[in-house]
Write the structure tokens for this entry.
Amino acid sequence: MSIEIDVLNGDASWPMAEPLFNAVWPPQVVEKLPWAAIVFAHAELRVLVEAEPGGVVCHVGIYRREVKWNGRKVWAGGIGGVLTREDSRRRGYASIALNAAIQTLKHEGATDFALLFCEPHNAPFYVGRGWQPFDGEIYADQPGGRDRFVAIAPYVYDIRRAPRRGVIDLCGLPW
Ligand SMILES: CC(C)(COP(=O)(O)OP(=O)(O)OC[C@H]1O[C@@H](n2cnc3c(N)ncnc32)[C@H](O)[C@@H]1OP(=O)(O)O)[C@@H](O)C(=O)NCCC(=O)NCCS
């Protein structure tokens, strides 16, 4: 079986990713998740893993944002929408896609650290791939205004900086 890994423009590649989102996160599943009511940003780039046969089996969204860490401007590489089709899990696809996302952020040269948010049951997956919990506070924008973001827990992947504590203001919608 061969796979193809592409890093594509987020908006242009959404039609390719959408069926995977609908399969993994249909409305009746999302409504039970802790982030159901959150408004998220749209990915700027998407890592898509296509398997033969099977089409798009895995997705990782990439966001780049100048955020504030303890009031200081830093570049965060956001990672979101990590999902693999149920019949294609435990084959390493999400690990490959996450790695491609981190390599993309590193290659661009500007990113201080990567940041994602996840539910507790997924934390071991990320910790096993080098992500560390961020023990401080996150603030993010929502349609009703800026507020503390607590729905899902933050994890950091160190690149040039290694934030562990303090306050990160996402300066926009969460991802
Ligand atoms: C979380 C999720 C993205 C993982 O996707 P995945 O493609 O199965 O991930 P991987 O295959 O890279 O790794 C999953 C596990 O399979 C193992 N694995 C990888 N390749 C394997 C193989 N060939 N044979 C057996 N196991 C394998 C990995 O070691 C890993 O286990 P570990 O975390 O104990 O080390 C997927 O379960 C998913 O889509 N869940 C629903 C959506 C979701 O919750 N997304 C996360 C949002 S934060």
